[in-house]
Amino acid sequence: MNQTIDRNQIEQLVRNALRGGGPSATPATGKSASAGGISPPGWIDGQPNLRVSISARHVHLTDEHVETLFGAGSVLEPDKDLYQDGFYAAKQTVMVVGPRRRMLPNVRVLGPTRNFSQVELALTDSISLGIDAPIRHSGKIEGTPGCVLVGPAGTVQLDQGVIRAARHVHMNFSDADHFGVKNGDMMQLKIKSHDCSVVFEDVLVRADEAAKLEVHIDTDEGNACNLDAACEVELRKDDCNCKH
Amino acid sequence: MNQTIDRNQIEQLVRNALRGGGPSATPATGKSASAGGISPPGWIDGQPNLRVSISARHVHLTDEHVETLFGAGSVLEPDKDLYQDGFYAAKQTVMVVGPRRRMLPNVRVLGPTRNFSQVELALTDSISLGIDAPIRHSGKIEGTPGCVLVGPAGTVQLDQGVIRAARHVHMNFSDADHFGVKNGDMMQLKIKSHDCSVVFEDVLVRADEAAKLEVHIDTDEGNACNLDAACEVELRKDDCNCKH
């Protein structure tokens, strides 16, 4: 993970050096931008750099549940860094078991651990599990269905926490300034893809100091617009006044 | 099937009778509308009646392939009528086998039979099968991947025909007149759904004499917008001049 951060920082420093070390081409704004020309997290050449990522089904766990599932003293072992600094796919997976003994055998655990455990599925997953998971934003799990998690060392009964994660966009405050939006606003994401272009509405802005500009959609959404073959992506403020 | 047609016709006749047998409230146009006030197929109260249907994965077969898969002399047995008159889900299913012996065990056959066999999958299905199925409109199968179909009486090797069906809208000529579109045009379908509204672009118009107004999307698309819980659907001409 540190390697990735370093590589990005070095890349940015080299770019700035090649430009003469001055400020970015587009005046950087927002709290993350320093006066010395270091761009906000994720920016390239003084501009936000939009990334759209598909979140496959995954699980977040508490420290306590990690120990129950993988054995006393166990901790999550990072396997692959995610784009957002500090987050990773762990080596560990769990089995998610639904109410009628239908199950998903190997669901990836994402780290770091959290204060509550949560299972994030696409609708296709939730249908195959037989769980009627509601669309929720991460953390809003009151009243959601539970499930059973099975690990090599034990099982956990979740009373709630199975959701379909609502689409959202991570960004830092400089990105938010760039788009003229603030935390909690809704945006639209247009995916131009041959024979299957889509406009996703209801994209929630989740802005903080350190995030890099990244939209998270689930596998159903990514497959509906064939994201891997998309020729253009555009994130825009939801402020069109036309009838559309 | 005839039962359904009769029921619809009777319903329409009763509606017209209650209105005094005169023409529809909105003047009916197009070739399917008779002067006697019988509405075009699928219309209710003199208006098009939009239906949005999810096409789950399915197979179309030739007469010859039906006999190979289900035994000499076999024909498709209608199990459930589809919304479009004359089309049905058959009692028969086949196993679809991909290149690495991954398979979908029970894929429904739709009738009536066709001049070529074709397998229609969602992208999620094609990933699980390990077949890189391209997005195509029905019938445009040149150069697409093949697969093996397995039935109770035999197997069929398809050299081509595995596609992801591109989204489209069936309509009759009166519907087309109503929307100001013609066969081959593209439309947009807006699905308003809590926290996951979507605008599907690239919806191909397939207009003929007898069709009822019905958009076909696949399971990935239906799940991406939670179609079952949608609060509003709108089909519109793709003619917006705004930046969106």
UniProtKB/TrEMBL annotation, chains A, B:
Keywords on record: Acyltransferase, Bacterial microcompartment, Metal-binding, Transferase, Zinc
UniProt KW Protein transport keyword: no
Pfam families per UniProt: PTAC
Cellular component GO terms held in the UniProt record: bacterial microcompartment
Reported cofactor(s): Zn(2+)
Source organism, top-level taxon: Bacteria
Region (Disordered) residue spans: 17-42
Documented EC number(s): 2.3.1.222
Molecular function (Gene Ontology), one example: acyltransferase activity, transferring groups other than amino-acyl groups
Major localization class: other
PANTHER family assigned to the protein according to its UniProt record, in alphabetical order: PHOSPHATE PROPANOYLTRANSFERASE
Family statement: Belongs to the PduL family.
Protein name, entry field: Phosphate propanoyltransferase
Source organism (scientific name): Stieleria marina
